[in-house]
Structures are given as C-alpha cells and as structure tokens.
Amino acid sequence: MDTPFSQTAGSEALRGAVPPTGDPFARLLERLQPGHRARTQGLHGAARGHVLARLSRTLKAPLVCVAVDEEAADALAGDLAFFLGGNGTLLAPRVLRLPADEVLPYDELSPEPHIVSERLGTLFHLSQGTRFPALVLSLRALLRRVLPVSTMTGLAQLLTTGQDIDRDTLARQLVLMGYQSSPLVEDPGTFSVRGGILDVFSPLYERPVRLEFFGDTIESIRLFEPDNQRTVDSLKEVSLVPARELLLTDQTRAKAEATARAVADHINLPTIKLRERLDALREGLPGFGLEGLLPGFFEGGLATVFDYLRLWAREPVFYFDDPVGLERAATDLWEELERSHQEADARQDLTLPPSEHFLTREQADAQLAGWRGVEGGGAGADPRRAAARPLLLWRHAGSARGHPRPPRRGGRPHPAGGAPPAVAGHARGVRHRLWNPEPGGPAQAPAAGPPPHGPHP
Asked: Greatest CA separation found in the chain?
C-alpha cells in the first residue's frame, strides 16, 4: 500500500528506503553527517512536517526540533503531529513539547505551574528512554538548565495495585517531590488524603489518580474527573514524577542555605534580610522567589537538556527552524539575562549568574558536536551558501569556515558561494509535492494514516 511519501504512480514507495539518486531528499541524506548541519531551501510551513516525518522514518531516528520561540514551537509541533499520527497522550506521546518559562529566574514572578509540570513530564519521558518520534522545543528551552537527572530518577515512583506502602509515608514523599496538599485535587502537582484514600495529580496524566488503601496495601488505582470527582477508569499502575523544580528535601535545603549565605556575602546583604530569607527556606515555603538560587539547590548544579537527550536516543536528528531567527533569539536572550541579573543584584536578591541557569554559546556548541542537523525555514536558507556546515548555533564566518553571518541591515545577505542546498522548493500547503523528480509534477495528497515510526537507534 502507498505511504504518504510514495512517488507518482509506478514509482517505488520510499518508506524506510533510501530515495533514488537525483532526488533532493537523497542529497539531504548524503549531506546529513555527524557534526554538521545540512542546509535546505524552501522548507516552510506544513512542508516541514512532511519532510521531517519522512526523514525520521527513513533514518529510524527521532527528531529534536528547535524553534525560535514558544509560539513557533507550537506551530511546528502541530505540523509534525499531522504527519506522525497525532500528538499522542501525556503517558504515550508521539510529538512532545518541552516548554520554556515565560519569566526569567531573576524576574519577581514565579513560573507558571502548568509549564513546570509539562516540562517535568517531558524530562521524565526522556530520562526513561520513552520511544516517540519528535521532541519540539524553543531555543530558550534548549539552553535552559534543568533538574538533575539523578534527582528526577531518584524521586520518581511506580506504584502498582497490590503493592504494600504506608499511606502516610507516601504522602510525605509526595511533599518532597514538590506536590502540595490540597482539600480537593483539581490541578497537576496537588494531592489529598482522606481516610484510606489518597488522590494525586501527576504531570504524566491528563486526569488525577485515586489510590484506595486496605491497610498498607494499594487495593485499587483509578482515574477520576477533577470537576466532579467521579472515577472514569481503572489502572494497574501509576507513575509519579516530581511536580516542582524547587524541591526542598533535607539535602537540597542544606545546599540552598549554604548557597544563599555565599551569595549574601557577595552582595553585602544585611544580616536581618538574610535571616528572613533563610527562615522561609527552612520552613519550605513554596513560591518564595527562590528561582534565582535554583542551581544552588543541587550538588554540581543543574543538568542540561542534552544530558536527558543522551538517555533518550543515541542518534537523534536535530532540526533548526529559521537559523537566522535562532541567532537573534540567542542574542536577545543573553542580553535580557545579563540585564535582569544586574537588576536583581541592585535589588539585593539572592541569585546566581546567568551561566548557572542557561548554557553559554560555547557550551551549546560543544554539546551539539557529533550530532546530525538540518536547518530550514525562515531567512536562513540561501542557495548561494555551502550545502553543509559545522553543527554550531552562533559562530559566524571568521570563527568557523562556511558558517553564515546574519543578514545585513535591510535583510540583504552577504555574498557567498557554494553548492545549492539539499532541498529546494516552496510549500503552499500540506498537499504540495516537494520531492517529485520532474519539475512541475502533479501535487499528491498524503495517504490517510502515516506509517509507524521505527525504533530509536
């Protein structure tokens, strides 16, 4: 049966096979080498999902798709989901988002709880090697440092029916995992205890879960609707993951207190103000504005998204959407970080420098070394440029040969020579044919239902 990526009638179906010589997709595969980024032309809109889904199936490799901002990442995820069989569910994803906070660590606002919850759910899937075709995130999310892998895996729990566990012990463990006690469980990251029942809303589920105990044994596990509290389905097991990044365990509280004292000495914070903040820290008050100190909660600081990616897949393919836009977004992010940090110091807030919260440009380039990448969309594709270049995010011509510079003022590109890009074309919608070998070939609609994604290498 033809797949969504079959050629015109009589041609060989391309599912899982290397395209014939002369096909632009074949040239893309040839130039997709470890440590380099293959450049494409005309990869915009829904065409991105078409090409990337085909690339993932052909290489049997998952995708890491990086967009300029959160809005662009949402749009890209939607395009991918169309060609990859939908988004899936929180527990069994197909296209998964890793969201970034709208606020910086130095802002006098706490991150949105639902964003933190979604991020932690995604990180858990990556840490467990959950197989799904595509991860989509913004540049800010890629560079943002995250909860250490050891903390994520050490706190996560799998509970099953028939398992013996003390209900009160489990409740205390949920507090350490960042869950908040609530009379009624309606939001992710909350739990409640009533007699022999413990309700909890894990970031991995679309509904909260009700655990019914008989003594110290979990007798049943059921999903229920948060609106009316009625059970809707039974489960044999449930996975619980951290619900917050500001985790106040005995270890993290002691480490955070030591970090706070060191920062207070650096900014000459009056002793009385330091004492107030330490008291709040010891009492475990959530939302105290401690995000600026978060790296100091953990021995060795925060982890990177790349630490999780290595647990998820050995050879993912990176896709960089709008490379010039990514360049500008990175510059804007670091300017904003440095300015906000200076303002926080002036307010005598307890904060750590931006490099403790986000990867620097050099660190990001080093992390990308050895992985394959494709760029498309935006203003970054220029047929006069070289077909491939080192897989770097920011280095321009002069620091890395062949790396394009941002356009001149007014949008005019710098003169450059080189081979044409691997893929050339333009998209007018999801039905536009990019890969027909004959110029002006007929459009062909995708077949219903994309083929399943192959295993992660």
From this structure: 81
